Structure formats: structure tokens, C-alpha cells
């Protein structure tokens, strides 16, 4: 069985860590066992079939959401310049959220209502790098 078929079977079972599987797909691709089209097809399929509940602590996320709601209800705006906290693996980011990742600032541009748990390297389509002028 070729590596493409093996990885596809793993994806179809749904029993995988998305981050780890994406690394393995890239490793197999670098070794020359996957074509560019096969790699992109597997990445797309893996992201579509990922079970986020196995990688995310849901109780932590509920507490995070409670804090966000409380801050909004208290109108917790300081008027200071925008802050870019460090990226936290597994945290739920939404459209408009800002982070610092590897000393660069990013803004989440995921579609409204979509959750992004990946960093800008793992899923760059959901992040926009902020220039110095924009970040002031």
C-alpha cells in the first residue's frame, strides 16, 4: 500500500491529531512519497475531518468565553493601543482577535462564527500579518 492510501485511511478513521498528522504528511511529501496534489488533497481532507474536541480542553474554552463575555458586559476598554497577546496553542480565536506569534503580530481573519485553533504557520489563510503602521 502506498503512503497516500495509508494516510487517507487514517484520516477516514478520524482518530488523529491534526497538527501531528499535518507534520507527517509534510514529512512523507518531502521524502518524495507524495505528489504536490496528493499532499494538498490529504491536508484538505485532514482539516475537514479533524475532531477538534480531542485536541481542545472544552472546559478551559468555556471559562475563556465566560471571561470574554464578562469583559464585554463590563465594557472593559482601556483606550490604550491595541494589544497582541502571545499565541496560545488550542485557544479558540475568532475573527478580529489579535496575537503575537514568533515576534510578529497577526489578526485573525477567519470567517465570522468560525473558530481558529491553528497558529499562522499551520493555517495562514485565517491570519493576516500586521505591519508596524497598522499595529500602532
Write up what this structure looks like.
The protein is mainly alpha-helical. It has four helices and three strands. Strands 1-2-3 form a three-stranded antiparallel sheet, with no helix packed on it. Helix 1 packs parallel to helix 3 and helix 2 (18-30) runs antiparallel to helix 3. It is globular and about 55 Å long. The model has no long low-confidence stretch (mean pLDDT 85).
Descriptive labels:
three-stranded antiparallel beta sheet; mainly alpha; 4 helices; 136 residues
Task: Produce the secondary structure layout.
Blueprint: H1 3-13, H2 18-30, H3 36-49, H4 58-73, E1 98-101, E2 104-108, E3 127-129
Antiparallel strand pairs: 1-2, 2-3
Helix pairs in contact: 1-3, 2-3
Q: Classify the secondary structure makeup into a structural class.
A: mainly alpha
Assembly state: single chain
* SSE run: HHHHEEE
Give the CA-based shape: globular
Q: Number of helix segments?
A: 4
- Major pleated sheet: 3 strands, antiparallel
Straight-line N-to-C gap: 54 Å
| Beta-strand percent range | 5-15%
Poorly predicted tracts of residues: none
What is the count of β-strands? Answer: 3
pLDDT averaged over residues? 85
Name the strands of the widest sheet in spatial order: 1-2-3
Determine Rg (CA atoms, Å).
18 Å
